[in-house]
Write a structure and sequence with these properties.
The protein is 31% helix and 21% strand. The chain is of the alpha/beta class. The strands form 5 sheets. Strands 5, 6, 7, 8, 9, 10, 11, 12, 13 and 14 form a 10-stranded mixed beta sheet that branches. Strand 5 (242-248), helix 9 (255-260) and strand 6 form a beta-alpha-beta unit.
Length: 703
């Protein structure tokens, strides 16, 4: 059986013209329609192929104008396909054309592995105008459909590398490129055929002037990437705005997926001129070669760390020094696939805040649970390969939200302070001011180096942290230091915390800073937002319940070092060793009045046999009290209960001999709203989505 030719492209994008030229060159398009109200010379489609593709899309709950994300071929349609191929496959070279094949191609190639593909594309404005006239679609609907089809075309091109032609070219250039494409797939005209020039007519192209249509930036960027894939334009060559630095160590399986997710076309709204990707290998046994990295695009290059260490910190700093962009994107874990809008939204964050932006992304784990848990239940590379192969992520990376869960660092939701971001962006000057990653974090994988960099960045007062809404990185399972299998009783996190304590002189704690939000919310990420909303609602409900009865526990434990006073909030003070304490003296001081509403308020203090009510009339009030406690157990507790309408956020304890000083501070600002007391958001940040608007969106989703 001769290898067929399959034409791929969006509706109204020159597929009929390309098929007609090939037909005149001698390729057999069996029973092709040569007359059509919307095509002067017919659409050159075999109705049986169209019917099969339509049946397949319908089976997968889709249609040509609402194509499904994933297409599964059932056995009955496979048999129908095989019967049809038997009818079409003659001794001569044959082919077929149907735009729907962009979404059904996998099943056709399953039966026709030697098939040769040709692709065609057209300017989004021209396609949208043509669909408006033919189908009555709005221009925005047409543009949206254009993006769906042409993102699929580009993804297939990256996988199969077939020739592409552009239907917008002038007649002479277009025909020359079609002939070159035919030669590239070894499809010369037959003895009785022609080169197609007698079929082509400029009248076949309708709606050539799309200047009146406002085309979105994402569509224009995708069109430019397609032109480059077709060899019709080249990168402009100026200094890129973003340098994305990706660290890799023994990631030959995972790294190609990560790099695929950084290619122009997968990343939406960018062309490749705006960014470069630097892959720094940190001593892998079998690293990707420079050629393998460069194959992902002209803006990709590979470096080898001259002094590889178990920690990636030195490698990341080395690569950052070799980068050219004014913005540095730090991707310390090369096993993380990026969602498609990260680079565009990162650029938007710097448009909003200039050099003061700190663009952050949340982390997720591929699979059914955080990989620290799923690996213990049998989730491995084989299971993940099957999951990713069936997910369709190459065509639409947002689908990974359906096949992943929040990482441990994101378990508290989008509205909680962030401990780390595995893909963050900051200005080069800020990165240099911070001194880059601290190479003293020398544990395999870096320990808490990434947490430390973020914490130090958040201490800079001018920096504006922004979470890129609807974006994430998706961790692939591999033998990493934090998610890999650990010996029984061995906790990597405990080692990380011990090193952090030794280097910074204090325990690690999550910076209490909530970032702003920037960007829109893809449908696939809505469940993540809803989950975060539920966590936020539960936290607010908990605070509301505690607003009338806030419990703060004070007590002491015994250990090998003696007795320690401690609070629920984690503050610990050492009490000198000696006789058991039967009485405790405390000083309660009210902080700045700007943080409280209203005065007066009362704290209720209870022990096993006492209840004291202490009133505060104004800021700066100090109250002394003496409490009897029972030291007859390992833990002795004293409860402080607030009867006010606010919630203390922190208790600071200090000690002088047996005297403890308790300062109630850090209370959230509150205001009257809808008859109750609710938190007032801070000043609105230009270019971000305020929390109030996000919550409003969530409420709509919940409805």
């Amino acid at each position: 059986m001769s290898s067929p030719v399959i034409i791929l492209g969006m509706h109204r994008s020159g597929t009929s013209c390309l098929a007609g030229i090939l037909r005149h060159a001698g390729i057999d398009f069996h029973n092709a329609q040569t007359s059509n109200p919307h095509n002067t010379k017919g659409n050159i489609e075999n109705q049986a192929v169209v019917d099969l593709n339509n049946a397949l899309l319908e089976y997968n709950n889709g249609s040509w104008d609402a194509p499904p994300d994933l297409v599964h071929w059932p056995e009955m349609l496979r048999r129908r396909r095989d019967e049809l191929i038997g009818q079409l496959a003659t001794g001569s070279t044959w082919g077929f054309k149907d735009p729907r094949t962009l979404f059904t191609l996998a099943g056709w190639l399953e039966a026709l592995p030697e098939a040769r593909c040709l692709g065609t594309f057209r300017h989004p404005a021209a396609v949208a105008m043509s669909l408006q006239k033919r189908n009555g679609f709005s221009l925005q609907t047409g543009l949206s459909l254009w993006r769906r089809y042409n993102r699929r075309l580009l993804a297939l091109w990256r996988r199969e590398r077939f020739p592409l032609v552009c239907f917008d070219q002038g007649a002479a250039e277009y025909l020359a490129n079609v002939r070159a494409a035919m030669a590239a797939i070894d499809c010369a005209p037959s003895a009785n055929g022609t080169d197609g020039g007698d079929f082509f007519s400029d009248a076949l192209r309708h709606h050539k002037d799309g200047a009146t249509v406002a085309v979105d930036a994402e569509s224009l960027a995708l069109y430019e990437v397609l032109r480059r894939a077709a060899g019709l334009s080249a990168p402009a060559g100026p200094r890129p705005r973003i340098s994305v630095v990706v660290a890799a160590f023994n990631m030959r399986r995972e790294l190609p997926r990560t790099l695929e997710s950084l290619t122009p076309g997968y990343q939406r709204g960018v062309t490749g001129d705006e960014y470069e990707v630097i892959v720094v290998d940190n001593g892998s046994r079998l690293p990707l070669s420079a050629g393998e990295v460069a194959a992902f695009g002209p803006n990709f290059r590979a470096l080898a760390c001259p002094d590889p260490q178990p920690s990636p910190c030195g490698a990341m700093n080395f690569a950052a020094r070799q980068s050219r962009g004014e913005i540095v994107g730090l991707h310390i874990d090369g096993a993380r696939i990026l969602s498609p809008g990260i680079l565009r939204k990162a650029l938007d964050a710097f448009e909003a805040y200039s050099a003061n932006a700190l663009a952050l992304t949340t982390g997720r784990h591929c699979g059914p649970a955080p990989q620290q848990e799923s690996r213990a239940r049998g989730y491995d590379t084989r299971a993940e390969d099957a999951l990713l192969a069936a997910s369709g992520w190459e065509y639409d990376g947002y689908l990974l939200f359906r096949h992943s869960v929040p990482a441990q660092s994101a378990r508290n939701g989008l509205f909680a302070p962030m401990p780390e971001s595995n893909c963050l962006f900051l200005h080069r000057d800020v990165f240099e001011r911070l001194g880059g990653f601290d190479t003293a974090f020398d544990l395999p994988g870096g320990g808490l180096a990434n947490h430390d960099l973020l914490a130090r960045a958040l201490e800079l007062p001018a920096l504006k942290p922004v979470l890129l809404l609807g974006e994430a990185t998706f961790h692939q399972v591999h033998d990493s230091s934090s998610t890999g299998a650990a010996p029984a009783g061995d906790s990597p996190w405990e080692r990380y915390e011990r090193q952090y304590q030794a280097l910074r002189g204090k325990p690690y704690s999550v910076p209490a800073i909530r970032p702003g939000f920037l960007g829109d919310l893809p449908e696939e990420a809505e469940e993540d937002m809803l989950h975060s909303a539920r966590l936020l609602a539960a936290e607010r409900e908990k605070r509301a319940e505690e607003s009338a009865e806030r419990l703060v526990w004070l007590g002491f434990h015994s250990n090998e070092k003696g007795w320690r006073w401690m609070s629920e909030q984690g503050a610990i003070v050492q009490r000198p060793s000696g006789p058991d304490v039967h009485a405790v003296e405390l000083v309660l001081r009210c902080g700045d009045s700007r943080h409280y509403s209203p005065f007066p308020f009362v704290l209720t203090v209870r022990t096993y046999d006492q209840e004291l009510h202490i009133s505060f009339e104004k800021s700066g009030d100090r109250k002394k009290l003496r409490l009897r406690v029972r030291p007859d157990e390992q833990r002795v507790l004293v409860r402080l209960r607030s009867g006010a309408s606010f919630v203390p956020a922190e208790l600071n304890l200090s000690q002088d001999s047996r005297r403890l000083s308790v300062t109630v501070s850090g209370v959230a600002h509150f205001s009257e709203e809808a008859g109750g007391r609710t938190a007032t958001p801070g000043p609105e940040k230009p270019g971000t989505t305020p929390l109030a608007r996000v919550l409003s969106r969530i409420r709509n989703l919940l409805k």
